Amino acid sequence: MFDDLNFVAGCKGYRFRFPELIPANGSPFQAGTDGGRSVYPCSAYAEGSIIPGKGILSPSPACWLPYGGREIGMSSGFEILTNPAGGGNLEWIPRVAGNITRVIV
Q1: 21-29 long-range Cβ contacts below 8 angstroms, 24+ apart
Q2: What pTM was computed for the model?
């Protein structure tokens, strides 16, 4: 299964998880809003590659992947980035004036 590659027993850092497998202490990592809804980094296997995208958790979980100049909508088979308490302490750094900030992950 796709998530088996990312699961490490006892790991307290960030990881991608299927929405239905996000535990109570596995806080989804919010990256901003889109149309008033919280969005989260997501990824899914599509078109022969693992593609990053933007996801939502409510009202129904979904992930949108950029591909070929359009967005591919996924309602299953995708993962959401989580940042468990005491874990990776991720921070989203927004663009400024259209420029992408250089950061080391």
Answers
A1: 22/80, 22/82, 23/84, 25/84, 25/85, 26/82, 26/84, 27/82, 27/83, 27/84, 27/85, 28/57, 28/80, 28/81, 28/82, 28/83, 29/80, 29/81, 29/82, 29/83, 29/90, 29/92
A2: 0.72
Cα 28–32–34 angle (5° rounding)?
115
- CA separation for the pair 103, 71 (Å, rounded): 26
Q: Give residue-wise pLDDT tens across range 31-48.
A: 888 888 999 999 999 889
Tokens 């996924």 belong to which residue? 74
Q: In whole angstroms, what is the distance from residue 98 CA to residue 90 CA?
A: 22
- What are the structural domain ranges in the chain? 2-82
Helix, strand, or coil (residue 59): coil
DSSP state string for 71-85: EEEESSSEEEEE--T
